[in-house]
């Protein structure tokens, strides 16, 4: 009977259960890589709500909208990652993973809601090494009471009888109850003693605090050393900056100089530069950011450290807040004050720009352990992502390349330019605005919102990312997102993303990679040494199909957040691992036997399995630093080019030094000339028998000239080397005699100015190229016209000077009239491009393509070849040589590169208009760029109206200016009457001569596109019969809203044949020129070939060259 009644009961319940199941939330399948899960499915309803009032607002506490963090880790060791969210004004929340991406809120039962106060960052760490993750949270906010500011440490007590992990707050017991307005913590074994110490990133709650960098302050960052389980403040001992001007928002950890010791990177908001702390291996750090980085973000937010390009070196991604779209840039971008910018640089604040920065490791580490980086955010396409917070570099599609996630948005855009102007006016009218609750409420409600979508960028290789937000994320919505973390929440082998949002429920982004793609992966969980149970800091090297991936097991990532202490590594289509090494510390390397793909691998520290790590001996480099020119420098004078033309794209007065090499005294030793800027006399340096050089200052009377190029040649056929010098610069008015190019006659090693032999051409020059173009036995001269002073970009005239038996005559109008107003010529080369046995001329310049002048019986005719227009760019160098060994001369073109703010393509060129748009008697310069298919002015309303005040009437608000195209602002008719120049290509490369006037452009490899190329030399270094290249450049003189072109360190390009090259890293070649290089030259010193590098406003560099043998590994 009992059994019968049971079945009767079940029969009655089944219909009811079916009805209930139909009402339960269902997890939707998605064809997108990521799916934003409904909170009804996940049961995560956490929301970081910011309630604004008279005390809680951005006017009294600017970080009020900075949001909270998220930490992910397996708190009960059930193999599922749990999630902890911090709340600024309410309770923190802990969610226990139940599987299938569903969670249970265990905040109350676990005891982790937190005390009163403003919670910021959070970190999960096994601080007491009992095998259970604990939770550390940071506190800040507009408070004075210590109790509201003390950080909290929740020690995991293990699961209760219901299987719920419980926690006990013990920050005081461990010595970590810091009350210094903290943002985030990073746990790191800085002294390699086996246990984990802690870096604590604090900040000043007051905007723009004043203080000394070296001073100690409770508001500054702190460092705590683990002393047998108790944390002791050793800030002063370790040498980190701890001062009241710190505004740290991001912290990352990694071995940046590959010495086996962990280093630290801190990204700072406002004018305080970021900090890069290099571990000195003696219990201290040295801050080296200004040496290691050529520029950095200005309002630096979160950061992440990872090897994004799989070259075996760690890179650094830091976020800022410049918009992707023109409207956002023009309405919210902070004004750049040139005087303040330069004052900050001179005060040691470094070059800071309001863009994201991706610091790619150059592979070069100097003798002091300082690593050097190339900033490549513009090249990779991730420089502009709006008001961004958390960057996460991880392989989201498991293809073996690390992608990027970026959280975005802010509740109130208090930097909106129109709002800022209205607020300023309102506060001038209401002096009590910040003390009157009603007036503060008015200001708060007047501040615009700025929600924005979060970004996904797919790493496509080749130093490029593709914006995959709309391809990867279904129903991408705009939010105010802050802290974020990645983790494999459902154990399917791909990384999901968790995001903490302001005023909206947290986002759980399910990754469908494992279902949609066929890529493999390996997952590693660590059981570390006794005092580091989770193996924090362990480095992993994975080799598959000859490719290397490196990962480091640090939890702190992005912004105010931490990821689980394990690794998920994408393998692409590789179905097995060749080898896997775990570096527990610099001296403890463990080979993992038979690692299995597509499953979890538990890696346990095993002292018996430690292998001997063989120290790889550095091979002898091709270039060795030589000290033969120490103490010789180029000195640049100060000149404000923008005073005459406020919207110049870059300075025009910093193109020196001139550099020329020859044996000037007939002793069979090569000497050199170094040309200086105006105000400093140039010099000859004569080589002595011991290989040193003696300076001969014989040009005192010519100190007024700006020497930008020079060449030795025998103009009078008397058997010695005379000197011609090009005078350039922008310091003087048009037609000034200070622009005269000069000829110096060599008489027994002494040089005499021969103005009587030169025509009176007073224009700013660029290059001098010597050849006997009329084949009369006397060397003639081409002089390139760089620009018209104070009239950029009006085309300048170049000149041909015929050597009439020792006297030079300007024959431009007679034999090459098209050189008049030809353009902004930067370089030229004599070559027989049509193979008719006479010399032709090819020129390059800004807003120019390779421009050919064909020698037709002694007269030069401009040839319009297809490549001239389609390759129009900003070229700074050209050389000719037979790259492909087919018997004709090819051209090597040095262009602006692809790592600059300015972009150019056939469909969306970079443009300039020049015209007197407001009819006030002076011409106006307008740079134009394309943004989402429309042409907008590059510069903002504020600086544009300095040039043309009527813009303020045409566009009375920043809102209108941000919506206006160039045509809207300047007028279609005016634009049609303006000088209009375009650039379609900024890539450097080879113009391969296929004969019959057919030229094919082949771009250089990506590493050669990281900066402008100003100098090119060719030489067969490995003696394989093919000419290899040395290139160098940079452009440090950009206007201050455009990051400097400074990612180049000099580069060797190995010739692979058929116009193809591969780039060689500095750690292989030894070539390292971190300067604004303008000229390169070979010189023989004591019988050995050397390289001279002429750098603007910097020391001359020299390298001895070791000639490689055939088949050597160049």
TrEMBL record:
Keywords: Signal
InterPro entries associated with the record: Crtac1, FG-GAP, Integrin_alpha_N, UnbV_ASPIC
Signal peptide: 1-27
Span of domain ASPIC/UnbV: 535-598
Record flagged with keyword Protease: no
Coiled-coil regions listed in the entry: none
SUPFAM superfamilies: Integrin alpha N-terminal domain
Official protein name in the record: Repeat domain-containing protein
């Amino acid at each position: 009977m009992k059994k019968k009644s049971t079945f009767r009961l079940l029969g009655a319940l089944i219909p009811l259960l079916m009805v209930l199941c139909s009402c339960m939330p269902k997890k939707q399948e998605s064809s997108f890589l990521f799916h934003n899960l409904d909170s009804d499915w996940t049961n995560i309803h956490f929301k970081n709500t910011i309630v604004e009032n008279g005390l809680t607002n951005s006017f009294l506490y600017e970080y009020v909208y900075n949001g909270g963090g998220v930490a992910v880790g397996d708190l009960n060791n059930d193999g599922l990652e749990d999630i902890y969210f911090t709340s600024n004004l309410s309770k923190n929340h802990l969610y226990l993973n139940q599987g299938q991406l569903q969670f249970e809120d265990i905040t109350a039962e676990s005891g982790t809601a937190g005390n009163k106060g403003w919670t910021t960052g959070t970190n999960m760490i096994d601080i007491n090494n009992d095998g259970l993750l604990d939770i550390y949270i940071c506190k800040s906010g507009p408070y004075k009471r210590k109790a509201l500011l003390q950080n909290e440490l929740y020690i995991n007590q293990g699961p209760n009888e219901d299987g719920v992990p419980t926690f006990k707050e013990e920050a005081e017991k461990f010595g970590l109850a810091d009350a210094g307005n903290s943002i985030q913590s990073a746990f790191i074994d800085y002294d390699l003693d086996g246990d984990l110490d802690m870096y604590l990133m604090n900040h000043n709650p007051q905007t723009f605090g004043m203080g000394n960098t070296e001073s100690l302050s409770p508001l500054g960052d702190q460092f705590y050393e683990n002393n047998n389980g108790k944390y002791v403040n050793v800030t002063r001992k370790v040498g980190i900056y701890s001062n009241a001007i710190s505004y740290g928002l991001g912290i990352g950890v990694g071995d940046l100089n590959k010495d086996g010791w962990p280093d630290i990177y801190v990204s700072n908001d406002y004018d305080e530069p970021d900090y890069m702390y290099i571990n000195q291996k003696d219990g201290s750090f040295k801050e080296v950011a200004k040496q290691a980085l050529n520029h950095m973000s200005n309002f630096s937010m979160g950061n992440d450290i990872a090897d994004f390009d799989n070259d075996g070196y760690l890179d650094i991604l830091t976020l800022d807040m410049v918009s992707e779209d023109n409207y956002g840039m023009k309405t919210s971008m902070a004004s750049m004050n040139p005087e303040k910018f330069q004052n900050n640089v001179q005060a040691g604040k470094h070059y800071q720009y309001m863009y994201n920065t991706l610091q790619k490791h150059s592979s070069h580490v100097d003798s002091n352990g300082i690593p050097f980086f190339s900033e490549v955010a513009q090249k990779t396409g991730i420089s502009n992502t709006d008001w961004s917070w958390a960057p996460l570099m991880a392989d989201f599609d498991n293809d073996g390349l690390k992608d990027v996630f970026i959280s975005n948005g802010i509740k109130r855009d208090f930097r909106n330019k129109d709002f800022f102007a209205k607020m300023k006016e309102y506060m001038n009218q209401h002096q009590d605005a910040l003390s009157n609750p009603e007036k503060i409420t008015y200001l708060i409600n007047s501040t615009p919102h700025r929600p924005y979508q979060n970004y996904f960028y797919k790493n496509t290789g080749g130093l490029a990312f593709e914006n995959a937000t709309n391809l990867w994320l279904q129903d991408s919505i705009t939010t105010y997102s802050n802290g974020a973390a990645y983790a494999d929440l459902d154990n399917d082998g791909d990384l999901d993303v968790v995001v903490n949002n302001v005023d909206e429920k947290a986002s759980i982004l399910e990754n469908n990679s494992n279902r949609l793609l066929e890529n493999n992966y390996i997952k590693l969980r660590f059981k570390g040494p006794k005092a580091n149970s989770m193996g924090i800091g362990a480095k992993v090297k994975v080799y598959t199909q000859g490719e290397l991936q490196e990962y480091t097991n640090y939890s702190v990532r992005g912004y105010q957040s931490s990821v689980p202490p394990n690794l998920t590594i994408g393998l692409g289509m590789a179905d097995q691992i060749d080898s896997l090494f775990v570096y527990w510390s610099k001296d403890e390397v463990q080979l993992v036997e038979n690692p299995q793909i597509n499953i979890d691998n538990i890696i346990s520290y095993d002292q018996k399995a430690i292998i001997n790590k063989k120290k790889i001996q550095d091979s002898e480099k091709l270039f060795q630093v030589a000290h033969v020119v120490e103490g010789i420098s180029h000195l640049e004078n100060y000149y404000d080019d923008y005073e005459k033309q406020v919207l110049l794209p870059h300075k025009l007065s910093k193109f020196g030094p001139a550099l020329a090499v020859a044996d000037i005294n007939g002793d069979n030793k090569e000497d050199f000339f170094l040309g200086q800027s105006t105000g400093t006399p140039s010099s000859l340096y004569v080589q002595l028998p011991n290989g040193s050089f003696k300076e001969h200052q014989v040009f005192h009377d010519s100190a007024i000239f700006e020497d930008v190029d020079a060449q030795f040649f025998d103009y009078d056929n008397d058997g010695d080397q005379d000197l011609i010098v090009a005078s350039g610069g922008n310091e003087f008015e048009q037609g000034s005699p200070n622009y005269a190019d000069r000829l110096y006659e060599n008489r027994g090693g002494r040089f005499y100015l021969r103005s009587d032999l030169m025509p009176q051409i007073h224009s700013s020059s660029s290059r001098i190229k010597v050849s006997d173009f009329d084949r009369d036995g006397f060397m003639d001269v081409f002089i390139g016209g760089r620009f018209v002073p104070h009239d950029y970009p009006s085309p300048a005239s170049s000149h041909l000077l015929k050597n009439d038996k020792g006297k030079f005559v300007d024959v431009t109008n007679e034999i090459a009239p098209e050189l008049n107003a030809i353009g902004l010529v930067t370089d030229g080369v004599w070559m027989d491009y049509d193979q008719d046995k006479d010399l032709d001329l090819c020129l390059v310049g800004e807003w120019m393509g390779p421009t050919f002048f064909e020698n037709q019986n002694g007269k030069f005719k401009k040839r319009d070849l297809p490549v001239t227009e389609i390759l129009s760019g900003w070229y700074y160098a050209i050389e000719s040589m037979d790259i492909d060994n087919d018997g004709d001369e090819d051209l090597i073109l040095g262009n602006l590169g692809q790592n600059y703010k300015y972009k150019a393509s056939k469909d969306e060129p970079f443009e300039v208009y020049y015209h007197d748009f407001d009819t006030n008697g002076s011409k106006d310069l307008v740079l134009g760029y394309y943004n989402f298919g429309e042409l907008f002015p590059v510069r903002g309303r504020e600086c544009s109206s300095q040039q043309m005040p009527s813009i303020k009437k045409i566009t009375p608000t920043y809102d209108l200016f941000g919506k206006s195209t160039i045509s809207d602002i300047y007028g279609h008719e005016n634009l049609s009457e303006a000088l209009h120049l375009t650039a379609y290509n900024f890539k450097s490369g080879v113009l391969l001569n296929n004969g019959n006037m057919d030229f094919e452009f082949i771009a250089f490899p990506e590493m050669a596109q990281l900066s402008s190329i100003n100098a090119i030399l060719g030489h067969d270094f490995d003696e394989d019969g093919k000419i290899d290249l040395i290139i160098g450049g940079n452009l440090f003189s950009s206007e201050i809203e455009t990051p400097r072109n400074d990612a180049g360190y000099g580069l060797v390009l190995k010739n692979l044949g058929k116009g193809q090259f591969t780039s060689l890293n500095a750690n292989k070649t030894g070539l390292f020129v971190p300067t604004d290089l303008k000229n390169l030259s070979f010189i023989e010193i004591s019988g050995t070939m050397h390289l001279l590098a002429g750098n603007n406003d910097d020391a001359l560099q020299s390298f001895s060259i070791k000639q490689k043998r055939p088949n050597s590994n160049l």
